Amino acid sequence: MASDEKLIKRILRRRRAAADELFERYYAKIYAYVYRQTGAVELAQDLTQDIFLTVFTSLGAFDGRASFRTWLYRIAANKVTDYYRSRAHREAALSAPLEDVGDTASDGFDVERLLECREDIQTVMKTVSQFEPSWAAVFQMKVFGKMTFAEIASRLGISENTAKTRYYAVLRKIRKEREYD
User: Fold this and answer.
1) Average pLDDT for consecutive 10-residue bins of the chain (181 residues)?
2) Angle, in degrees to the nearest 10, between helices 149-156 and 133-143
């Protein structure tokens, strides 16, 4: 199995197989990361495709200062944040057809709980998107990426204390926003 850096060099030389291998290596992880932040299958699929489109069109700008994985997750975090700031998100939230959802399924799957969870995720991400991207990235990596503060600090090139400070500041803002709701 080739390293990410070797695959990137091959992709830049227009090797389709290398692009396919890199895509397959990271697609499921990025999709899971995006899905945890959106709670919507189709939206997660669309955003994941958009993330990889951005990655492959911007690969020439990858400078190698951070690992490819860190760069990829940074793009993913920014795309999710951009989505929650976008007009498309506001329109989708207002026009979601409830008749398409149905009731609790016979297998015990609670659709209402799913909708509450999705709404909670969207509310939280809307609040997170108000922060600077580097602050939002700390929150996203901790909550959705299940990373430690040390890992976050290493990936973002900041101190562990800075990562903690940013994370807890975002949490306080989320709690404050939830109190007003």
Assistant:
1) 83 86 91 86 92 90 85 89 72 50 45 59 77 83 83 87 90 78 55
2) 140
**In a 3-state reduction of DSSP, which class is residue 127?**
helix
At 55, list the tokens: 């990655």
HSE of 127 in the Cβ direction (CA atoms, 13 Å)? 20
Report helix angle 16-38 to 68-85, nearest 10. 50
pLDDT at site 103: 44
Do residues 164 and 157 touch, judged by C-beta distance below 8 A?
Answer: no
Question: Tokens in use for 123?
Answer: 């509310």
Residue count of the chain, please give it. 181
Task: Give me the number of domains the chain comprises.
Answer: 1
pTM check: above 0.70: no
Q: Which residues contact 13 (CB under 8 A, 6 or more apart)?
A: none
Instruction: Give residue 46's pLDDT.
Output: 93
Q: How many Å apart are CA 14 and CA 115, to the nearest integer?
A: 43
Residue 168 CB coordination number (10 Å): 12
